[in-house]
Amino acid sequence: MRYLCSSLHILASQLPLSLVQQRAALCPEQPAPELSGHGTMSFTYPSSNVTRVTINNGPVNFVDRLFADDLLDFLIPLQNVTEDTPKVVIFDSSNPNFWLGHIDMRTLATPITNEKKQLGADYMKFTQLLQNITSTVFIAEIDGRAFGAGNEIAAQMDMRFVGPRARTGSFEEALGLIAGGGGQTYMGAVLGKAKAMEYLLAAKSFTGPAGEALGLYNKYYDDSQVLKDSVLELAQRIALFPRVALNQTKSVLSFLNPPNNAFQLDFEAFYDIEQGPEQQANVRKFIELSEDQAANHYELGLGESVMALYGLWDGSVA
Ligand SMILES: *[C@@H]1O[C@H](CO)[C@@H](O)[C@H](O)[C@H]1NC(C)=O
Ligand SMILES: *[C@@H]1O[C@H](CO)[C@@H](O)[C@H](O)[C@H]1NC(C)=O
Ligand SMILES: *[C@@H]1O[C@H](CO)[C@@H](O)[C@H](O)[C@H]1NC(C)=O
Ligand SMILES: *[C@@H]1O[C@H](CO)[C@@H](O)[C@H](O)[C@H]1NC(C)=O
């Protein structure tokens, strides 16, 4: 039992939820990581003032209803600042291939019900909360794929550090869609207009060194453990300092954020555009090629694999 508990402890971050729960039952002396309501993320506390959120939502870590609920449940209370409010939140992933995936593509297939559109609306709320919560700094620690929604959410965080497995980008335009969940506006703010146009319009993706050179990533590390250690060291340094200064710095730098009404316009445009016949054919083709969003060759081949829609993918996985 002891051996089982300790080996499960090491593996816990890679285990599916049911096994994590089993471990909690088997090993009461080691509390299981605290889980979000739907279990799509777990919370650990490397030191006071720092929270690590580890994303774990299915084979491609996609943004679906359950993840959206869990992220809102986590973010909303941070608006109320108390002594326990973390100064720094690090988002990482227990999935070695995916940091945070695209939106659940089934929610983009017509008919667009109110329920499906609500996911889009809640997604805009993350954008606002990640900005409105000025007393906490959000850091994306990316060592896997982050395409579509995952890339948009990363772009909205305050800093991004990446490791050797990072592959990110917005593939939406290849389907005739747009990165309309704040992604376009933030890519513009972070990369500048010309580079944002190039990468969005051509649905190009970034690896670590390229993204660092573009200023999208604060820093690229070629070693996953060095990434983790360095991000934690930075977080702990920030976390020592008085909150009032942190809050004022984040508040004042928000003048660089895209205007709030730009998100609303892009959100409405997204649902107009995505219901077109070409877009719907592409969404259905995407679901088919990905075998309904399994971690298959196609999903692992993002962002280049979207070119399969045009017969232009050589099948290689970056
Ligand atoms: C903030 O705290 C107050 C008082 O405890 C509570 O009534 C309110 O619901 C909280 N708001 C949020 C967004 O958590
Ligand atoms: C965030 O702030 C903006 C601008 O003040 C406001 O319009 C919006 O309702 C806020 N959003 C949330 C989710 O609190
Ligand atoms: C956490 O923040 C408090 C309040 O600013 C500070 O007194 C304390 O030293 C910080 N602790 C760590 C470990 O950063
Ligand atoms: C953060 O800074 C803003 C802008 O100065 C201020 O309005 C807000 O009250 C501050 N919040 C906290 C928790 O100090």
Automatic annotation (TrEMBL):
<feature type="signal peptide">
    <location>
        <begin position="1"/>
        <end position="20"/>
    </location>
</feature>
<dbReference type="InterPro" id="IPR029045">
    <property type="entry name" value="ClpP/crotonase-like_dom_sf"/>
</dbReference>
<dbReference type="Pfam" id="PF00378">
    <property type="entry name" value="ECH_1"/>
</dbReference>
<protein>
    <submittedName>
        <fullName>ClpP/crotonase-like domain-containing protein</fullName>
    </submittedName>
</protein>
<dbReference type="InterPro" id="IPR001753">
    <property type="entry name" value="Enoyl-CoA_hydra/iso"/>
</dbReference>
<keyword id="KW-0732">Signal</keyword>
